[in-house]
Amino acid sequence: MQTKKIFLSESEIPRQWYNVAADMPTPMEPPLHPGTGQPAGPEDFAPIFPMPLLEQEMSQDRFIDIPEAVLEKYLIWRPTPLYRAYDLEKHLDTPAKIYFKNEGVSPAGSHKPNTALAQAYYNKISGTKRLTTETGAGQWGSALSMCCKLFDLECKVYMVKVSYNQKPYRRMMMQTWGAECVPSPSSETAAGRKILEQNPDSPGSLGIAISEAVEAAVQDETTKYSLGSVLNHVLLHQTINGLECQKQLAQTGDYPDVVIGCAGGGSNFAGLAFPFVRDKINGKDIDVIAVEPTSCPTMTRGPFAYDFGDTVQMTPLIAMNTLGHSFVPEPIHAGGLRYHGISPLVSQLLLDNLIRAEAIPQLETFEAGVKFARTEGFISAPETDHAVAVAIREAVKAKEEGKEKVILFNWSGHGLVDMAAYEAYFAGRLQDHALHEDEIQRALADIAPLPKPKQYTGA
Amino acid sequence: MQTKKIFLSESEIPRQWYNVAADMPTPMEPPLHPGTGQPAGPEDFAPIFPMPLLEQEMSQDRFIDIPEAVLEKYLIWRPTPLYRAYDLEKHLDTPAKIYFKNEGVSPAGSHKPNTALAQAYYNKISGTKRLTTETGAGQWGSALSMCCKLFDLECKVYMVKVSYNQKPYRRMMMQTWGAECVPSPSSETAAGRKILEQNPDSPGSLGIAISEAVEAAVQDETTKYSLGSVLNHVLLHQTINGLECQKQLAQTGDYPDVVIGCAGGGSNFAGLAFPFVRDKINGKDIDVIAVEPTSCPTMTRGPFAYDFGDTVQMTPLIAMNTLGHSFVPEPIHAGGLRYHGISPLVSQLLLDNLIRAEAIPQLETFEAGVKFARTEGFISAPETDHAVAVAIREAVKAKEEGKEKVILFNWSGHGLVDMAAYEAYFAGRLQDHALHEDEIQRALADIAPLPKPKQYTGA
């Protein structure tokens, strides 16, 4: 019998996170204060994040210890199994070996708790009583709700109203984990009230929800804000996944030629990929691919520029690939990939050619997800299907080239709470959305690309 | 760091199922042909089940080999982890050790594929091209859909119409796994058409759906029928779980004083419990508890009697605890526990005092589920919450008695597709349903309890 899943024992769980900033050939551009245009320091972020997270945000240490209390709770779902997709390989008749890391085994069903847990912990030890956050479809809000409860913190989630009404399951998960979830715009914040005055029927947006969550956090000393992707410390916490994966692959004797993850803000991609990017910097030949939807082609068509993290221009300016903070992508089902920008770490690595990006149309992702479910059993989240699609592309390419490649992708979460997306797909109600150049140009009008970004040429 | 999860490596997966019939002190009462009243043999069942499953149904062999092809696909989710519920223990301040077996890691999110996979395999090698089945909320229908696809069989699911409309997620899972799912009553069968003539707006019932699925199976040589609980071979396939669990517990040095599972038809309970029942027959002192809802108290208030397995009286008569085939329980959220009878194997073991039953009111189960989610992270299916509730009762009792008991329960599935139940609970829309004696008497009017069932007195 062939080995299907590679497990690590709990005693083998990585005890440090990996910080790719320590190994990047080009140093990161600093965030800028939106008012002064000067580099922003920890003090600018202190009202919304606790100091240990800010230290991690700025850290140049290669490895950062995972606190014992976080490790203990990680064991609820970690180490997660690494799978060999024999049946998908057979179906594709490919000489490639396909591996996937199953992050769907967490109670929330995705990779999101990897950072939610760490953020809840650091807030707890810093005296925070309550965390606020925003959520779209609820993947992040539900993960943070659970982790706050595990560390006995209150949690308040501003959920985009249209999702609050149309996608009730993750809202109910938040409630079950003891969080308060309100539809955004709400009448509880000045930002929310302002929107409601203009339009009482506003469906809300992630930008508005961020504004509400940040406003609620700064009003109160013991309330902080939490973000589920984009920032350095968030990506840092996710690297436990890639570090586990390296130990697991070592058991098989295989090493990946291709590493794949879908990327919205960039955290699930980074979590798997960054430890392999380190190997690449140290000389390994790996193709590292971040996958995005063609309807929100941040990495493949957005320039590297200083831009706001949110649509309402409250955050510092960060240097990243962006389609402009006013860009609103089509309402595709992979809601987690609809962010106008992408993590600065991912952006700099793209610029330095240490990773590359691929954009996939929506229908191909569902076709891939159905193929995966019918061979490997698991039904993926629509976001995850983007990674599945590129894994299939690479496996087909390996067949055409007659190469016995090793392909690894992050199966970042299951889709059991996203089944309406599959129904829409089967009913023929989904379409592909490829952007016209003029749409992109319009979106980019209010940002200015960095004229000469620093770039690594040694890779 | 304490060990939270006990894994088995894939090479340690049990290679045989355990057949409790071989060890039962009282032999089973045979099923009776509904027309003749004579014991029914394999030939009576041959139109709807393939021969290998009928042989297992009647087998007295203690262990039955798991075919290599089934083992290979079991590895998609098995062996499943055994968890120690440290945080629940701490919350309850109990000296008891609480273990739970996590069957929610399967792609369908429950224990159901353990038998669906085996049934699909034996049908495949017997020349079956298509399986039919019925499903209520869809837990079973989705599991069978997946497993049929894995063994390249067609699958047709008759889903109770009210659930088809109100609980669309599992229906969409079936579609994603390539099954055809139709609302029952349908116009495709004589049984369905008859109901629709009488009442075009019939919401359907499990009884009607069974009739449709069986009718569709008998019409066609290469179509067979599949059942997800109650029958001996179904329970047999589930025992892989208890056998795994025994190996896992051996690693800890602990042995359970109490073993708990919720029971609708009895298969998830049996899957965990039967290998421990064997130990009990061989002298171990274990309290083995099957948990049911007070609104459907088959085991605690139904007599041991010959009754039909379905409401429309098509099946053979089977000797079991039953509330009568016409009994319709309240529409509680634990839909999987709303069966009027219970597996004959479970019934005989109850009669022989080798196991016992406990009935739990609905509100207590959700209270338990919320407590569990807020300490251990995982959100349970409403059925599973019945087992959680009794585990908590036993842990509290252990505290009162000052005993360091070892409690083990089957966490048979997650509730992420059942969140509407939790919302109803939080909104105060759920109630307890305890049956009045006269309701029970009315339900029992059309069956006759066995006057002198054989009973074991040695336990």
Write structural notes for this entry.
Two copies of one chain form a homodimer. Chain A has a seven-stranded mixed sheet with strand order 1-4-5-15-10-11-14, sandwiched between helices. In chain A, strands 8-7-6-9 form a four-stranded parallel sheet, sandwiched between helices. Chain A has helices at residues 42-45, 51-58, 68-74, 86-92, 113-125, 139-150, 161-166, 168-176, 190-198, 206-218, 232-238, 240-252, 267-281, 298-301, 344-351, 362-376, 382-401, 419-426, 437-444, and strands at 5-6, 16-18, 63-65, 82-84, 97-102, 130-135, 154-160, 180-184, 223-225, 258-262, 287-293, 304-308, 317-321, 356-360, 406-411. The longest helix of chain A is centred in the last third of the chain and has 20 residues, at 382-401. The radius of gyration of chain A is 21 Å and the shape is globular. Chain A has a domain at 68-109 and 233-447: 3-Layer(aba) Sandwich (Rossmann fold). The model of chain A has no long low-confidence stretch (mean pLDDT 94). Chain A is α/β, with parallel strands linked by helices. The two termini of chain A are 41 Å apart. Helix content of chain A is 41%, strand content 15%. Chains A and B meet through helix 3, helix 6, helix 8, helix 16 and helix 18 of A and helix 3, helix 6, helix 8, helix 16 and helix 18 of B.
